[in-house]
Amino acid sequence: MGILFLMRDRVDEYARKQERAGFTEYMMYVQDTRRLIRINFLAGMMRGLGFAVGFSLLGAVVIVLVRQLALDNLPGIGTFFAEVVKMVQSNLH
Fold first, then answer.
1. pTM
2. So what's the pLDDT on residue 12?
3. Long-range contacts of residues 68-77, Cβ cutoff 8 Å, at least 24 apart
4. Tens of pLDDT along 49-78?
5. Who's near 17: CB < 8 A, 6+ residues apart?
6. In the 3-class helix/strand/coil scheme, how is the chain assigned residue by residue?
7. How many angstroms separate the first and last alpha carbons of the chain?
């Protein structure tokens, strides 16, 4: 009989831990497929928007820095940009 009481105590303790961890709410969340799809879709949209905004800002900072380097007439930078401009112009015509 002693082992049954010990097992029941362990099961009760495990159930209390699961309740404190929000396991029941998580299971309800996973079982509601419409809500799960909606939340994951919105999360994906926000990640994509964040990626686009972050990449745009980072690109703008890089362009400003490279433009400043070109204006300072650093050796090598001016010739590099001249070659890039020549390649772009030759591909446009």
1. 0.50
2. 83
3. none
4. 999 999 999 999 988 887 787 777 667 777
5. none
6. CHHHHHHHHHHHHHHHHHHHHCHHHHHHHHHCHHHHHHHHHHHHHHHHHHHHHHHHHHHHHHHHHHHHHHHCCCCCHHHHHHHHHHHHHHHHC
7. 92
